[in-house]
Amino acid sequence: MKTPRLLQYLAYPQKITGPIIEAELRDVAIGELCEIRRGWHQKQVVARAQVVGLQRERTVLSLIGNAQGLTRDVVLYPTGRALSAWVGYSVLGAVLDPTGKIVERFTTEVAPISEERVIDVAPPPYASRVGVHEPLITGVRAIDGLLTCGVGQRMGIFASAGCGKTMLMHMLIEQTEADVFVIGLIGERGREVTEFVDMLRASHKKEKCVLVFATSDFPSVDRCNAAQLATTVAEYFRDQGKRVVLFIDSMTRYARALRDVALASGERPARRGYPASVFDNLPRLLERPGATGDGSITAFYTVLLESEEEADPMADEIRSILDGHLYLSRKLAGQGHYPAIDVLKSVSRVFGQVTTATHAKQASSVRKLMTRLEELQLFH
Description:
Elements: H1 5-8, E1 13-17, E2 20-23, E3 32-37, E4 45-54, E5 59-64, E6 75-82, E7 84-88, E8 94-96, E9 102-105, E10 114-118, E11 135-136, H2 141-146, E12 149-150, E13 154-159, H3 165-175, E14 180-186, H4 190-202, E15 209-214, H5 220-239, E16 243-249, H6 251-264, E17 269-271, E18 274-275, H7 276-286, E19 290-291, E20 296-304, H8 313-321, E21 324-327, H9 330-334, E22 347-348, H10 351-354, H11 357-378
Parallel strand pairs: 8-15, 13-20, 13-21, 14-15, 14-16, 16-20
Antiparallel strand pairs: 1-2, 2-5, 3-4, 3-6, 4-5, 7-10, 8-9, 11-12, 17-18, 19-20, 21-22
Keywords: ATP-binding, Cytoplasm, Hydrolase, Nucleotide-binding, Protein transport, Translocase, Transport
GO cellular component, one term: type III protein secretion system complex
Pfam families: ATP-synt_ab, ATP-synt_ab_N
């Protein structure tokens, strides 16, 4: 008797370890979504998992959500499609989980006009991109005057703990001229997410904001998906002709989530404990913002430094991909100077493209004076 065709593509889990499932699934692809049901004859979906690795005889999947309640008797159903989410104007003023579900609103709901988009996609092709030529006015004098950013630029905010990264993000949201703000909080504490939502609720720009979160207790694949979903939401509004500002806090925790997923799928660690695929996936996300013929995404990525003195290979890798970085100084923060931007250690690689000759000359003069002042302080 032949096995029914449907059953040839189903599988029982052979191993469940935390959020990782191993099963003999056929004809599945990396990133494919699988439904988990109580039995092959039941329609109720009790959980979902994402394919993260393919070994010789087994497929490695990572659970989306919690593993509590799963047994050996559950059945994995391949769906043949990647993880997607519904995005549109209805997400403005809303808080989204990593699957795109609206969990809270801090504004009244708008018309539910939306479209379904796969969250893990390639960056826009070269032909659709345009250069960075227009300055982005942030309202932060140290940035606008000495580290001018451009519309469509990707900037890093590098700092160790307690230097005011969140405060700088708040300032940029309140003062930057843009149509939409998308905030991705990746691997943050639950308290910080709550405080950020409270800040947005009190902001006069709350109707323009979308917040996507995956706190530190979420599985690694959820933290990866949250960063991709935030970028997907920003891309939707860019395609609508909007000027979007995207924040991802933090890229360090996103990279750690990528590492956890890669190690669980059987990859070997390479540089500083990170598998090689992590360094392949970073530019895949970081290259998605930018300006196109329709609209623009200006992105700010926070990077948590372990130490201000020691070399950090992950921070160096991210810095090499971005169009500039703002370095926040623990010394300035300790003196109560906020935002604690160390101008001499920071750089905007599009500064010359978005400023006038007079502006550039004056900024250069100020930087020379600051350099001289720093030298004098060393001998004081």
